[in-house]
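User: Some background: our group keeps a shared notebook of sequences we're curious about, and every so often someone picks one and asks for a predicted structure to add to the entry. Today it's my turn. The entry only has the sequence so far, pasted here. Could you supply the structure so I can complete it?
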Amino acid sequence: MNFKRIFESYGKYLERISHKFQDILTEQNGTFILLVEISESSRYVCRFCEFAGNVPYDLKREINEKVNGSLIPGNLDWLKTLTEPRVLSKDQVQSYFPELHQVEVMQIIPIYVEENSKNIIIIGYFQDLTPASISFNVNELKNYLYIEQFYNLIFEIIIMFNRVIEEKEPLIRGHMERVVEYADLIAGEIGLDETQRLILQIAGAVHDVGKIMVPDFILQHIGKYTEEMKLKMQKHSEFGYELLKNLPMFNEVAEIILYHHEHYDGQGYPKGLKGNEIPLYSRILAIADSFDAMVSERVYKVSMGYDEALEELVNNKGKQFDPELVEAFIAGFRKTRLLNPLKYKVPDLPKLFCRVTLAVGNQYFDGRVSYKLENSKKVFIKLYHHLSFDMKEAYEKPLTLYFQDKGMSAYVRGHMQFYNVYNQTLIFEVKENPGFVVPEQFVSLPISRGGLLVSGSNNIPILIVELGGNGLRFVVNKAKLKEVGLVLKENTRVTILFGLKVEEEEQYFGFKGTIIETPKTTLNESYLVKFEDVDEKHRDRLISTLLKYQISLRRRGLL
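Assistant: Of course. Here's the predicted structure to add to the notebook entry:
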C-alpha cells in the first residue's frame, strides 16, 4: 500500500465529501445534516453535524445537545435494517424524534462500511417542503469512511507508541512534537507540498518507536555509555524499521526512520550511507532530532542554549548534516521565530498531531488536532479525557483553543459546534483569530521581574511573570488598582517599564501596549499586554537580552 497515495486520497475524499454535504445543504434553506454510525453494540454515534441557511444559533445548540445527550432515541431499531433511503414526514419525525419538534421533513440514507457496521446520513429540513432528489455516490462515501477509519487508526497507533516510549524514557516527553515541528519547518523552507509534509510529520512522530525494544536500564542510564550499551542503543532505528515495515500504513515511513541516524559524510549508522544516498526525509529528521536533543535535558547531559545548538549545526555541515538543509533550518528558524515574532501567526492549517488545550471557563482539557478541512474554520479535536461539565455551558459561551505545540503561544476563540461523547471528539468552529501570539519559549521566559505600569498619571508596581519579544504577562495588586481608581480592561492602553540584569549588566526597557486579556476567574489574576509601535532595534535589543538571560539561567541550572 502506497503511503503517499493513501493520504492524497484521504485529503481528496475528505474535501469532496465536505463539498457534497455543502451542496446538499445549499439546495434548501434551513437544513441540518448528521452522519451517524451504528456500532456492533447497536450504539448510535454521531460523527458529523452541519447546518446551512437560516438556522438560529439557539436551534443549532439545541440540536447539538439532543444529539449529544441521547444520540438516537431507543425506538429506532428499524434503522439497523434500513437498506434504502427513506423520507419521513413531519408526523413521522415527531414520532421517531419527538425532541426535534421544529423539523418538518427528514431524509435518511444508509451507508454500509462493514458487515457489522452501518453509517446513516440524516438530513433534516426546518421548512415544510419536499426535499430535492439527492443522488449520493454510495461507493464514494464508503471510501471516505474507510479512509477516515484508516487515518484515525494511524493517529491512535502513534499516540500509543509515544506513550510507551515516554514511560520508558520520561525526560523525552514532548520530543516527538518538537521533532515534528522542526522537521516541518525545514519542509516549508525547501518547498515540500502538503502530502509530503504529512508523511514527514508522521515519520517524525514515530522516529524513535524502536526504543520500545531498547532495555530501560540503557534509556535511563546516567553517565557515559559502555561500548555494548552504545551498540544496543544504536539498534533502535533498525528495531523501529522491523516494527513498522510490515504494517501497510507505515511501510513507507519505516525506511525513513531506518536511516535518520545516517551521517552526511558516511560515518553514521546503521548502513553508513553518505550524501544523497540517504533519503531526503531521513536527512531532515537527522537535523530536527539532533537539534531538539541538543536544546533538551537528558539523563546524560545538560541542555545547550539555542544559539549554541545552531552553531553546532553549522560546525557539522557536510559532516553529520546535509549543508543545504542546515541552512534551510537556520533560515526558517530565525525568520519565523526570532526576527519577526509578530508575524508568527496561528497557522491556518494546524499540523497533524498538534497538541491543544480547550479552555472552558476555568477548566482546561487537553487533546490533539485530528484534522482541519481546507478552507474551513472547523477544527476536529480528539480529547484525552471526557469533558466534565454541563454541555449547555460550553454551547452558551465563546471558548478558547490553545495550540500547545508552540508552548501555548497560539490561540483562537470560537464555539464548540459538536461533541461526540463516544469517542471524545469535538468540532471547534473558529470565530476569532486575535492575531497575537505569546512569544516562543526561547524568546519568552517565565520570570519574576518587578516593573511599573504607567496609565495616565498613575505609576503602579507590577510583577512580570512572562516576557517576550512582542508582549508580556503581569500580575498586580487589585487593592492598589482600586486605591488609585484604575480599571484595567481589554483595549486599555498602558506603558510598561522594567529592567533585565544579565551578568552584572542592567538593561532598561519601556514599551507601550494594549491589554488584550484580563483575568477570567478569581484563580487567574494576570493581564496580557501586546506591545505596539515598537522600534525594531528596540525589540531586537530586548530579544537579544532575553536570549542571553535564558542562556545564563540554563548554565546556572535555574531553567
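Suggested note for the entry: DSSP finds 16 helices and 17 strands in the chain. Residues 338-349, 405-409, 436-443 have pLDDT under 50 and may be disordered.
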